[in-house]
Prior knowledge:
The protein has helices at residues 17-20, 34-45, 63-73, 105-121, 149-173, 180-191, 205-217; strands at 10-15, 52-55, 81-85, 125-129, 140-142, 145-147, 176-178. It has seven helices and seven strands, in the order βααβαβαβββαβαα. A five-stranded parallel sheet has the order 2-1-3-4-7, sandwiched between helices. The chain is an alpha/beta fold. It has one domain: Rossmann fold, CATH 3.40.50.
Amino acid sequence: MTITLRPGSTVMFTGDSITDCRRRESEDGLGSGYPLSIAGQWGLRHPDRPVTWMNTGIGGHKVRDLEARWQTDVLDARPDVVSILVGVNDMGWHTLDPDGHEIPVADFAAGYDRLLAPLAAAGTELILIEPFLLPVSGSVQAGDTLVDEKIREEWRADLDPKIQAVRGLARAYGARLLAADGMFAQLAATAGPEHWSADGVHPTPAGHAALAEAWLRLVE
Protein backbone atom coordinates (compact mmCIF):
# COMPACT_ATOMS: atom_id res chain seq x y z
CA MET A 1 0.00 0.00 0.00
CA THR A 2 1.28 3.44 -0.91
CA ILE A 3 0.93 6.79 0.83
CA THR A 4 -1.44 9.27 -0.77
CA LEU A 5 -0.09 12.80 -0.87
CA ARG A 6 -3.06 15.13 -0.97
CA PRO A 7 -2.97 18.77 -2.02
CA GLY A 8 -1.50 20.79 0.82
CA SER A 9 0.28 17.85 2.48
CA THR A 10 3.53 18.55 4.32
CA VAL A 11 6.40 16.11 3.91
CA MET A 12 9.41 16.23 6.23
CA PHE A 13 12.76 14.66 5.31
CA THR A 14 15.22 14.26 8.14
CA GLY A 15 18.38 12.40 9.03
CA ASP A 16 22.10 12.90 8.46
CA SER A 17 24.35 14.30 5.71
CA ILE A 18 22.79 12.15 2.98
CA THR A 19 19.55 14.05 3.53
CA ASP A 20 21.15 17.36 4.51
CA CYS A 21 23.13 17.97 1.29
CA ARG A 22 23.85 21.59 2.25
CA ARG A 23 20.17 22.40 2.62
CA ARG A 24 20.88 25.52 4.69
CA GLU A 25 22.84 26.95 1.77
CA SER A 26 20.02 26.34 -0.72
CA GLU A 27 17.28 28.84 -1.47
CA ASP A 28 14.44 26.35 -1.05
CA GLY A 29 15.94 24.66 2.01
CA LEU A 30 15.96 21.23 0.38
CA GLY A 31 19.65 20.92 -0.44
CA SER A 32 21.01 19.23 -3.56
CA GLY A 33 20.20 15.56 -2.89
CA TYR A 34 17.28 13.18 -3.08
CA PRO A 35 14.75 15.46 -1.29
CA LEU A 36 15.20 18.04 -4.07
CA SER A 37 14.86 15.34 -6.73
CA ILE A 38 11.66 14.05 -5.12
CA ALA A 39 10.13 17.52 -4.88
CA GLY A 40 11.01 18.27 -8.50
CA GLN A 41 9.66 15.01 -9.87
CA TRP A 42 6.48 15.30 -7.80
CA GLY A 43 5.85 18.82 -9.06
CA LEU A 44 6.40 17.67 -12.65
CA ARG A 45 4.07 14.69 -12.36
CA HIS A 46 1.39 16.20 -10.13
CA PRO A 47 1.00 19.95 -10.71
CA ASP A 48 -2.55 19.60 -9.41
CA ARG A 49 -1.35 18.31 -6.01
CA PRO A 50 1.05 20.88 -4.52
CA VAL A 51 3.00 19.62 -1.50
CA THR A 52 5.08 21.47 1.09
CA TRP A 53 8.51 19.88 1.30
CA MET A 54 10.78 20.34 4.34
CA ASN A 55 14.28 19.10 5.15
CA THR A 56 15.83 19.02 8.63
CA GLY A 57 18.74 16.65 7.96
CA ILE A 58 22.05 17.53 9.62
CA GLY A 59 25.37 16.05 8.57
CA GLY A 60 27.03 13.71 11.05
CA HIS A 61 23.91 13.08 13.11
CA LYS A 62 23.13 9.82 14.81
CA VAL A 63 19.84 8.59 16.25
CA ARG A 64 20.62 10.23 19.60
CA ASP A 65 21.25 13.57 17.85
CA LEU A 66 17.86 13.36 16.17
CA GLU A 67 16.28 12.65 19.55
CA ALA A 68 17.78 15.82 21.00
CA ARG A 69 16.16 18.02 18.34
CA TRP A 70 13.10 15.93 17.47
CA GLN A 71 10.51 18.15 19.12
CA THR A 72 11.63 21.43 17.58
CA ASP A 73 12.81 20.15 14.20
CA VAL A 74 10.11 17.59 13.46
CA LEU A 75 7.17 17.29 15.85
CA ASP A 76 6.46 21.02 16.12
CA ALA A 77 6.09 21.22 12.32
CA ARG A 78 3.22 18.68 12.46
CA PRO A 79 4.04 17.11 9.09
CA ASP A 80 1.69 14.68 7.41
CA VAL A 81 4.55 12.46 6.28
CA VAL A 82 8.00 12.02 7.84
CA SER A 83 10.80 10.33 5.91
CA ILE A 84 13.83 9.27 7.98
CA LEU A 85 17.28 8.17 6.85
CA VAL A 86 19.69 7.66 9.75
CA GLY A 87 22.11 4.98 10.90
CA VAL A 88 25.31 5.20 8.92
CA ASN A 89 26.82 7.50 11.57
CA ASP A 90 25.86 4.96 14.22
CA MET A 91 28.43 2.57 12.74
CA GLY A 92 31.97 2.62 11.37
CA TRP A 93 33.82 5.86 11.86
CA HIS A 94 31.10 7.15 14.20
CA THR A 95 30.55 4.07 16.38
CA LEU A 96 32.00 5.59 19.54
CA ASP A 97 29.73 7.42 21.94
CA PRO A 98 31.00 10.27 24.20
CA ASP A 99 32.21 7.70 26.75
CA GLY A 100 34.21 5.77 24.15
CA HIS A 101 31.83 2.83 23.83
CA GLU A 102 30.36 1.39 20.67
CA ILE A 103 26.69 2.06 20.05
CA PRO A 104 24.92 -1.30 20.57
CA VAL A 105 22.17 -2.24 18.15
CA ALA A 106 19.71 -2.40 21.06
CA ASP A 107 20.41 1.24 21.96
CA PHE A 108 20.15 2.24 18.31
CA ALA A 109 16.79 0.48 17.95
CA ALA A 110 15.43 1.88 21.22
CA GLY A 111 16.37 5.43 20.27
CA TYR A 112 14.87 5.04 16.80
CA ASP A 113 11.70 3.68 18.39
CA ARG A 114 11.46 6.79 20.55
CA LEU A 115 11.56 8.89 17.39
CA LEU A 116 8.71 6.98 15.80
CA ALA A 117 6.34 6.59 18.76
CA PRO A 118 5.06 10.20 18.96
CA LEU A 119 4.67 10.40 15.19
CA ALA A 120 2.64 7.21 15.10
CA ALA A 121 0.50 8.47 17.98
CA ALA A 122 -0.24 11.62 15.97
CA GLY A 123 -1.25 9.59 12.90
CA THR A 124 1.76 10.71 10.86
CA GLU A 125 2.62 8.58 7.83
CA LEU A 126 6.14 7.16 8.07
CA ILE A 127 8.75 6.30 5.47
CA LEU A 128 11.91 4.65 6.79
CA ILE A 129 14.95 4.55 4.52
CA GLU A 130 17.34 1.88 5.74
CA PRO A 131 21.01 2.90 6.03
CA PHE A 132 23.31 1.50 3.37
CA LEU A 133 26.96 0.82 2.58
CA LEU A 134 28.23 0.18 -0.94
CA PRO A 135 31.23 -2.13 -1.57
CA VAL A 136 33.50 0.37 -3.30
CA SER A 137 36.99 -0.93 -4.06
CA GLY A 138 40.33 0.22 -2.73
CA SER A 139 40.95 2.87 -0.09
CA VAL A 140 38.63 5.87 -0.03
CA GLN A 141 38.50 9.11 1.92
CA ALA A 142 35.70 9.25 4.49
CA GLY A 143 35.79 12.66 6.13
CA ASP A 144 39.30 13.01 7.55
CA THR A 145 39.95 9.25 7.50
CA LEU A 146 41.44 7.05 4.77
CA VAL A 147 39.41 3.85 4.84
CA ASP A 148 40.48 0.53 3.35
CA GLU A 149 38.39 -2.52 2.51
CA LYS A 150 39.16 -4.28 5.81
CA ILE A 151 37.75 -1.37 7.79
CA ARG A 152 34.66 -1.30 5.58
CA GLU A 153 34.14 -4.99 6.30
CA GLU A 154 34.08 -4.11 10.00
CA TRP A 155 31.58 -1.36 9.27
CA ARG A 156 29.39 -3.80 7.38
CA ALA A 157 29.37 -6.23 10.30
CA ASP A 158 28.27 -3.37 12.57
CA LEU A 159 25.70 -1.94 10.17
CA ASP A 160 23.84 -5.11 9.16
CA PRO A 161 22.10 -5.62 12.55
CA LYS A 162 21.08 -1.95 12.53
CA ILE A 163 19.57 -2.34 9.07
CA GLN A 164 17.59 -5.28 10.43
CA ALA A 165 16.46 -3.11 13.34
CA VAL A 166 15.11 -0.47 10.93
CA ARG A 167 13.27 -3.16 8.99
CA GLY A 168 11.76 -4.47 12.22
CA LEU A 169 10.63 -1.00 13.26
CA ALA A 170 9.03 -0.46 9.86
CA ARG A 171 7.00 -3.63 10.35
CA ALA A 172 6.09 -2.73 13.93
CA TYR A 173 4.82 0.73 12.99
CA GLY A 174 3.29 -0.12 9.63
CA ALA A 175 5.76 2.27 8.00
CA ARG A 176 6.77 2.16 4.35
CA LEU A 177 10.29 0.83 4.04
CA LEU A 178 12.74 1.94 1.37
CA ALA A 179 15.17 -0.98 1.31
CA ALA A 180 18.09 1.16 0.15
CA ASP A 181 20.89 -1.24 1.09
CA GLY A 182 19.43 -4.02 -1.02
CA MET A 183 18.59 -1.61 -3.81
CA PHE A 184 22.14 -0.31 -4.05
CA ALA A 185 23.56 -3.84 -3.88
CA GLN A 186 21.51 -4.71 -6.97
CA LEU A 187 22.45 -1.51 -8.76
CA ALA A 188 26.15 -1.99 -7.94
CA ALA A 189 26.08 -5.40 -9.59
CA THR A 190 25.43 -3.75 -12.95
CA ALA A 191 27.00 -0.28 -13.04
CA GLY A 192 29.55 -0.75 -10.24
CA PRO A 193 29.32 0.68 -6.71
CA GLU A 194 31.38 3.80 -7.46
CA HIS A 195 28.72 4.91 -9.95
CA TRP A 196 26.29 5.23 -7.04
CA SER A 197 28.64 6.35 -4.24
CA ALA A 198 32.28 7.37 -4.45
CA ASP A 199 33.00 6.54 -0.80
CA GLY A 200 30.40 3.84 -0.23
CA VAL A 201 28.26 6.10 1.97
CA HIS A 202 27.42 9.38 0.26
CA PRO A 203 25.47 9.00 -2.99
CA THR A 204 26.57 10.43 -6.30
CA PRO A 205 23.94 12.36 -8.31
CA ALA A 206 22.92 9.00 -9.80
CA GLY A 207 22.64 7.53 -6.30
CA HIS A 208 20.43 10.37 -5.13
CA ALA A 209 18.28 9.91 -8.24
CA ALA A 210 17.92 6.21 -7.43
CA LEU A 211 16.80 7.04 -3.88
CA ALA A 212 14.31 9.60 -5.20
CA GLU A 213 12.81 7.18 -7.72
CA ALA A 214 12.43 4.45 -5.10
CA TRP A 215 10.89 6.93 -2.64
CA LEU A 216 8.34 8.14 -5.16
CA ARG A 217 7.21 4.54 -5.75
CA LEU A 218 6.13 4.48 -2.10
CA VAL A 219 3.77 7.45 -2.52
CA GLU A 220 2.30 6.84 -5.99
